[in-house]
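Mods, move this if it's the wrong board.
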Amino acid sequence: PDMHQTRKGQQWYFGMKLHIGVDSQSGLAHSAVVTAANVHDKHPLPNLLHGNERRVYGDSAYASQKALIASKAPKAKDFTNQRTRRAGEVDEVQRAKNRNKSRVRARVEHVFAVVKRLWGFTKVRYRGLQKNATRAFTALALANIYLARGRLQGQVRP
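Not the wrong board. Structure tokens:
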């Protein structure tokens, strides 16, 4: 009942979205928020920031959130992607900057790959956001352990 539908292109989706905050150095998820599918990506941003960030990377959905990022993470520099097309013309310099930012943002996709491919979290299994949120947060915790397995094991002496 608390899940909704949304359209992306010509395809309709029903369910929920999982928004995560990932540390760019370690690649581990530090915060997560679950919303209905029709909620815009910029709304859970305050819950994804912990305040000690030095840099904030995001896609163009967060481009209009400069004041919010400055209030929640005062030490952070804003590295969100900016729109490259203005009045029908493509700004190649801005496009190149966005490409460099996207290389760092790709760390988020590694977490989603583990959650979706290894733990099978591609479809919701329960009715309601709360039950699916619990399942998603458990999958994220397992993904963090999986991604940090090399550091957790330590060096093995021969």
